[in-house]
Design brief:
Length: 187
């Protein structure tokens, strides 16, 4: 199934153009995405565990890397919020509603990469959310077509690994630092 992305400006507004996913990543067009961080075991000292997904080893980008809890591109007709809710359900089996998501910030991320010998340009406007920790997770039923495994890790250990340049992680350092700061303010 072909995915279509609406192209955006740097503020996240639609600019009236739609392109196929492959063309967007070939040409480096700015498009939308949502990142959702899932946490548990919040301690009085501000430490908590963060859910990471290991991307499947056959993914077209960042294969086998540890990544944000749940993330996805905003397809044609979606909003940042509807994308977040859809991705949580598709990737992790978490069916939830808007009031359980805490909007944290908007960011611009991107870069030019090479995977399997092919250029891959990914430039996104992302809305970053926190799934409120009071939402019961139950058994996470992850999307095996997208995710190799789920890993819970201490929030500070993740930061140390990213800062050390551990290639196992494909998490933007600036995003993760901002996420930690914002999450501690709302917890």
């Amino acid at each position: 199934m072909t995915e279509y992305f609406e192209l955006l400006d740097e503020e996240g507004n639609r600019i009236g153009k739609v392109k196929e996913r492959e063309a967007v990543h070939r040409d480096g067009d700015l498009h939308g995405g949502s990142h959702i961080w899932v946490i548990r075991d919040v301690k009085p000292d501000g430490h908590f565990q963060v859910l990471l997904q290991r991307r499947r080893y056959d993914k077209d980008s960042f294969p086998g890397c540890l990544d944000v809890s749940s993330a996805g591109h905003m397809t044609q007709g979606e909003t940042f919020l509807s994308t977040a809710l859809r991705e949580l359900e598709e990737e992790l089996g978490i069916r939830t509603t808007e009031e359980h998501l805490q909007y944290l910030f908007k960011q611009l991320v991107g870069g030019d990469f090479v995977f399997y010998g092919q250029p891959f340009k990914n430039y996104e406007v992302n809305f970053v959310y926190l799934l409120k920790p009071e939402v019961p997770l139950g058994t996470l039923n992850y999307q095996r077509e997208e995710i190799e495994e789920l890993v819970w890790m201490d929030s500070e250990k993740i930061l140390a690994e990213i800062q050390a340049g551990n290639p196992e992680f494909c998490i933007w350092e600036e995003e993760y630092s901002r996420f930690l700061e914002a999450a501690k303010k709302v917890l």
